[in-house]
Amino acid sequence: MSFGNTYAGRVAEQKTPDRTDHNITLDADDDRWEWRRRIRANPTKHLVYRIGVGVVGGLLLIAAPLTGWLPGPGGIPLFIAGLAVLASEFEWAQRLLYKVKDWVKALTAWTGKQPAWLKMLGSIALFICVLIAIWLYLAVLGVPGWFPDPWERFLARLPLLP
């Protein structure tokens, strides 16, 4: 069975661009910054630089789940930043970063195609999850003393909060 004239056939015939050259490290010629090309020219400096990039990127990746429970965006931006730092020097991280970007694009396209009622339902569910997370945070750590008195009185009426 031939898909030649169908959309599926045209997509199947397209070749996906190979974004990497499958080396362990990025090539100096691929780098757009002169200062990094100079570092890569010296093997000792390059090794120290790679270790530094690995440590900084690794720390950001470790910090991502540790800060994920905090209010705000938390660990997702830290994870992406850590992956971007590692991708500046390591080919495997660059491949993983491309996969994450493709996943985010696919998820964004999928959510854009959903009906408005489903988007609203998802927004309400997310809002309820955030409220529950804040409530659990306050239940475990207590209500901060810097909250205004009316808020403290309101929160004192909720279960598990002092």
UniProtKB/TrEMBL annotation:
Keyword check for Transmembrane helix: yes
Keywords assigned by UniProt, alphabetized: Membrane, Transmembrane, Transmembrane helix
Biased composition (Basic and acidic residues): 12-23
Region (Disordered): 1-23
Highest taxon above the source species: Bacteria
InterPro entries documented for this protein: Uncharacterised_PGPGW_TM
Transmembrane spans: 47-70, 76-93, 124-147
Pfam families in alphabetical order: PGPGW (PF09656)
Keyword Protein biosynthesis: no
Protein name as it appears in the record: TIGR02611 family protein
Organism field: Kribbella capetownensis
